[in-house]
Amino acid sequence: MRKRLITFVIVASAGAAVASITLAGRNSPSAGRSAFSRLSNAQRDPVTLPVADVRTSRLRGSGFTQVWRIATHGNTNFLEFDTTTGRHCYGTGQPRAAWPIDVVMCGDRAPFFPSLERPILDLSVATFEKGDSVVHFAKVDGFAADGITRVALLNARGVTIGQVPVTGNTYSASTLPVEPVTAIAALDSAGNVVPRH
After folding, report:
1. Other CB atoms closer than 10 Å to residue 19's CB: what's the count?
2. What pTM was computed for the model?
3. Is 169 left (phi over 0), alpha (psi -120 to 50) or beta?
4. pLDDT tens digits for 137-188?
5. N or C: which end of the chain has fewer CB within 10 A?
């Protein structure tokens, strides 16, 4: 059966489904809400957008003032966007592409990333088959707040079958366990599950 690749963002409404199966690990103890409310990655390299590209004008017109590269994993840049509205916006793109932005995600309602309620912002690629109600992760990419050190990969039973380290407030893995990954969970330095996104 033919598979389709889609790019999706795990939003708050999906977080409840993730939380219901992440049984391994205790909720993170009170480490202070501020520990999960920032990204202190020191690397912030400006990304130059092509002046003649109409998409640059559209971004500017939508209130985007600057694009920053905060990390690179393989062939993926992790981007942060400054806006005139103060919205927190993040995305990914390809380092050597003519247009450097592939995905943009902006928080428009609570819980906002980064926060204790939403400690990660996931921009992973998933596959699914027609008629299959379970989404399988094909590539894991995302942003993580300061208090998150790893992201757990879970199977359909909620069992941890792998982990991805967080470096520079980002995580990325293109090689995943043989068993399908159907959900993820944020972990603090003690391995405790932080309230989910």
Report:
1. 17
2. 0.81
3. left
4. 889 999 999 999 999 999 989 999 999 999 999 999 999 998 989 899 999 9
5. N
Pairs from 95-100 (Cβ < 8 Å, separation ≥ 24): 98/50, 99/50, 99/53, 99/55, 100/47, 100/49, 100/67
Structure tokens at 69: 């590269």
| 3-state SS track over 156-194 | CCCCEEEEEECECCEEEECCCCCCCCCEEEEECCCCCEC
The HSE-up count of residue 64 (CA atoms within 13 Å, CB side) is 24
Cβ-based neighbour number of residue 25 at 10 Å: 16
Residue 141, classed as helix, strand or coil, is strand
Rounded distance between C-alpha atoms, residue 34 and residue 64, angstroms: 26
Cβ(192)–Cβ(28) below 8 Å: yes
For the record, the structure tokens of 67 come out as: 């694009």
Record the tokens describing residue 112, joined without a space.
């906002």
Residue 184: closest CA among 4, 9, 3, 29: 9
Residue 46 contacts residue 37 (beta carbons within 8 Å): no
b/e 67-79 (16+ beta carbons within 10 angstroms → b): bbbbbbbeebbbb
Contact 187, 172 (CB under 8 A): no
Chain-centroid distance, C-alpha 97: 21
